[in-house]
Write a structure and sequence with these properties.
The complex is a heterodimer of chains A (about 250) and B (about 280). Chain A has helices spanning about 50-55, 75-80, 100-105, 120-130, 145-160, 175-190, 205-210, 225-230, 235-240, and strands spanning about 10-20, 20-35, 35-40, 65-70, 80-85, 165-170, 195-200, 215, 220-225. With about 250 residues, chain A is an alpha/beta fold. In chain A, the strands form 2 sheets. Chain A has a 6-stranded mixed β-sheet, with helices on both faces. The termini of chain A are far apart. Chain B has about 280 residues and is mostly helical. In chain B, helix 3 packs parallel to helix 6 (about 90-110), helix 3 crosses helix 11 (about 170-200) and helix 8 (about 130-150) crosses helix 11 (about 170-200). Classes of the chains: A alpha/beta (about 250), B mainly alpha (about 280). The complex binds adenosine-5'-diphosphate and magnesium ion. Adenosine-5'-diphosphate (ADP) binds near residues 22, 42 and 46 of chain A.
Chain lengths: ~250, ~280
């Protein structure tokens, strides 16, 4: 994988996204560097998920451009440099597949068209399962897991992809405090290895503990930068229409 | 022994058993994907929509499979077109498209063919299948089965999580229309065995039966094929000895197997049942 980490991980310039005429994002720009941990915050409906979908090429901007690892989103996915854990996975939990099968699906992009697993694929899947602490559950049917464990399985799938950039859309929704902590520790350790983490969340209290950058979203990226500069009472309060309390702001 | 060998003296019985088994196997494979994807109604829609194709092929004197496949694809494209350009829900769109095409077929048939022909199209007549049709059916069934097995992982990922498939660079649109085309070919190839009305049973019951018994997709494919082929063979024997409709017998046996399996799962101790819905937090977590 040829990725120049001195260049931008994500470069979005002047993007508009419309859903049936409704503008979800307007003139949105954000530049994210490799090796950073960015928290994306904003109210429900602010456009956080839409921003992620722009990066993943799942929605087509009506204006502007999105560059991921110096490529179009599609090309970036082809070389496997970006992985995505969607908001609430719209998957059928009764599906007859195991934890191991799901994580192996992370390898499909790198395999031949028959997607028959090879030794390297198995090793990566095992490694990813170990890493998220789900190795002992490998044969469980995916419905037989708690909310936190389900999240970890999808993080393991993203990990098995071997991506440099990880996007997680509200990974803490429906996850208890203990699992949330375990998940953030895991993500912080990915960052320590040079990976780029971008996650959206409503947990404003713990955000400053692990995010070195914050993006404030309100139908556009209102502000993005180092946590201590952006996660301030004024800016956050603007993002949340003045309704914020019990939050440890920078400064 | 005599019981099993006697019908095999007749070429028409041998043909019927082979054709029904091939059709049973391929329908069973697809049924696993359909019930997981929630496409059962779509299978029903396509099977009804092929009627005008069968009648037009009859009028033109061309193989009925060509006409049926053509209208199967017409139905698929029309359903996709209407769904993408209106706010009408997919089940309603399918209802409109397939009933309209089926009605068109009925109109054509009432002007051209006999009541017996109509019965055969609607309910199948595998005992009277011609050599050419038998060959067409077997080749079609085996080709589809081979493709489904070769690409089962991609198809399963598409059914399970199409968004993920898209984000790792899999051409999901192509996969979508490929699966639909395989479905259309399967339905077309099953027509002479079970007919338009009962094809849908072949495309649901084996997968549903298997789903009750396993949490493994590989095992689900195997169980579905085994019960389906078993039903096909026993249905053919039943129709020989009891002088009843072959298609009816096959589908009836499939339904009985499903009921037996369902009863078995109810009788099983609760802790052995496959998890249903959101599982409660496991203690070890
Ligand atoms: N598929 C869609 N069709 C129409 N409107 C949508 C769709 N997805 C999102 N929206 C709208 O776009 C806006 C932004 O949504 P989203 O990006 O999901 O916000 P967030 O993730 O911040 O809650 C919302 O007002 C939402 O209603
Ligand atoms: Mg969202």
């Amino acid at each position: 994988m040829m990725i120049d980490k001195s260049k931008l991980a994500i470069d979005i310039q002047g993007v508009d996204v419309h859903y049936h005429g409704f503008a979800a994002l307007r003139d949105t720009s954000i530049q994210i560097e490799h090796g950073t941990f960015s928290g994306v915050i904003g109210m429900n409906g602010a456009g956080k998920s839409t921003l992620f979908k722009v990066v993943m090429g799942l929605v087509r901007p009506t204006r502007g451009r999105a560059i991921v690892c110096e490529r179009t989103p599609r090309q970036a996915q082809k070389i496997g440099c970006v992985a995505y854990v969607p908001q609430s996975e719209q998957v059928d939990w009764d599906f007859p597949i195991s934890v191991y099968d799901v994580v192996m699906m992370g390898r499909y992009g790198a395999q031949n068209i028959f997607r028959s697993p090879r030794g390297d694929d198995r090793a990566r899947v095992e490694g990813a399962l170990e890493r998220v602490g789900m190795a002992e559950y490998r044969d469980r049917q995916i419905g037989e897991l708690s909310g936190g464990q389900r999240k970890r399985v999808f993080v393991a799938r993203a990990l098995a992809q071997g991506a440099e950039i990880l996007l997680l859309d509200e990974p803490f929704a429906g996850v208890d405090a203990k699992s949330e902590r375990a998940l953030t520790e895991l993500l912080v350790s990915f960052k320590a290895e040079g990976k780029t983490i971008i996650l959206s969340t409503h947990e404003l209290t713990s955000l400053t503990e692990y995010c070195d950058h914050v993006a404030l979203v309100k139908h556009t990226v209102v502000a993005y930068g180092p946590t201590e500069e952006v996660f301030t009472r004024d800016l956050v309060s603007h993002t949340y229409d003045g309704i914020v309390h019990r939050v440890a702001f920078a400064k | 022994m005599e019981f099993f060998l006697e019908p095999l003296q007749y070429a028409f019985m041998v043909k019927a058993i082979i054709v029904s088994s091939a059709v049973g196997a391929v329908c069973a494979l697809l049924s696993c994907f359909l019930i997981l994807k929630g496409w059962s109604l779509l299978g029903d829609a396509i099977s009804h929509a092929v009627l005008p194709g069968v009648v037009i092929a009859y009028i033109l004197g061309i193989p009925f499979g060509i006409g049926a496949l053509f209208f199967a694809l017409v139905a698929v494209l029309m359903i996709g077109l209407v769904k993408n350009h209106t706010k009408i829900k997919e089940d309603a769109v399918m209802g409109i498209v397939f009933t309209t095409l089926f009605a068109f077929g009925l109109i054509l048939i009432s002007r051209t063919a006999s009541a017996v022909d109509l019965m055969h199209v609607l309910f199948g007549y595998v005992l009277g299948i011609s050599d050419g049709s038998a060959l067409f059916t077997i080749i079609a069934a085996l080709s589809v089965a081979a493709l489904v097995l070769a690409f089962r992982r991609t198809l399963l990922l598409y059914c399970f999580d199409a968004t993920h498939a898209q984000t790792i660079g899999i051409p999901v649109r192509f996969v979508h229309y490929s699966l639909l085309t395989l479905l259309a070919i399967t339905i077309t190839s099953s027509l002479q065995t079970v007919g338009i009305i009962l094809v849908i049973a072949m495309l649901i019951t084996p997968g549903a039966t298997a789903f009750l018994l396993t949490k493994r997709f590989g095992a689900m494919l195997e169980i579905a094929v085994a019960t389906s082929v078993g039903s096909s063979v026993s249905g053919a024997y039943m129709s020989y000895y009891l002088d009843i409709s072959t298609g009816g017998a096959i589908v009836f046996v499939q339904g009985l197997i499903f009921l037996a399996v369902f009863a078995y799962t109810l009788a099983r101790p609760i802790r052995e049942r496959p998890a249903k819905g959101i599982a409660s937090e496991p203690k070890q977590a």
